[in-house]
């Protein structure tokens, strides 16, 4: 592990340790008997349903990747499924260092370049962020009357911003409107960059080059790579298919959260609706920024904090449900992923090292390139083939 990654890991560990410390100080009278009672009385059928929904999501992700490969190669979704599940297993076991296992494994298996699959991965992330932000924004605005009754919002009081008095849920509604605006802005930027990546890259270099010439070139490389990566979206039909799949993927994740919360049959959790549970999904996504290998960290803490602060559940039930959500939605892929890795004759540890090396090579090539910005292509010229070795 290089010094940069070691420093980032140490920083994340320090932040998580501080969060755990303050949480423990807040919950000094933790009742372990109550915790085990709540956990032991969960309905296993609902938990298995949650796992089944998560596995369905992995198949849909393979279908989405198949659509993104259309411009260069026709491949069946079932062929991509093992690589998809092995990749998510690496992410669950190794944390962020395992993030590029999936694109690396698909590139190797399908005889494509690593750069092409990193581009697909980048576009996939864009669709994920856009779909999730859109779902959350619509949920906040559409289900406002229900969500504002949640204890954390109903008892949250108001805040003064100048002469305005804004309630806790009012601020939350503003964030929903903000999310819609961000989705629209990102969509417009993506369309503009895809139309002419070279021009967008030159503009980025002029803007950020004032800070540092090296930094400007680095940003320009990223912008151009992003724009060229958007060529993985073959046509308007593919765009709508990708958008629909992305929305479906996140809705299914939401229903997996519903299944887990409904497993707590003797508690109020069993009465939670999809609109309420999506708040837990959002907390998990935001908290996932701070993740450590195997143990996770940020995702669980954010979910537990939301269960306690917004839903006003006991510390014991909040921790039990938060950990169960993490196990079902994030860690349940590990058994199947390890079996598939064995069947594919690959080692997740070796894949992680090789994928990181390939990613570092790509970054080094970008930094070493003396002229990263080719002239803009002709208006009707097809995009150059940057995919196959």
Which strand order does the major sheet show? Answer: 1-2
Residues in β-strands, percent: under 5%
Number of helical segments?
Answer: 17
Low-confidence stretches are 370-389
Largest sheet: 2 strands, antiparallel
- Report helical residue fraction: over 70%
Overall pLDDT confidence? 80
Write structural notes for this entry.
- By secondary structure, the protein is mostly helical.
- The protein has one domain (35-368).
- It contains 17 helices and four strands.
- A two-stranded antiparallel ribbon has the order 1-2.
- A hairpin with a 2-residue loop joins strand 1 and strand 2 (164-167).
- The model is unreliable at 370-389 (pLDDT under 50).
Topology:
Elements: H1 3-26, H2 32-40, H3 44-68, H4 77-94, H5 101-110, H6 114-142, H7 144-147, H8 151-154, E1 158-161, E2 164-167, H9 168-195, H10 197-209, H11 213-229, H12 236-262, H13 274-287, E3 291-292, E4 296-297, H14 298-309, H15 315-331, H16 333-343, H17 348-368
Antiparallel strand pairs: 1-2, 3-4
Helix pairs in contact: 2-15, 3-4, 3-12, 4-5, 4-16, 5-6, 5-17, 6-9, 6-11, 6-12, 6-13, 9-10, 9-11, 10-11, 12-13, 12-15, 13-14, 14-15
Please describe the structure with a list of short key phrases separated by commas or semicolons.
single chain; 389 residues; mainly alpha; 17 helices; 4 strands
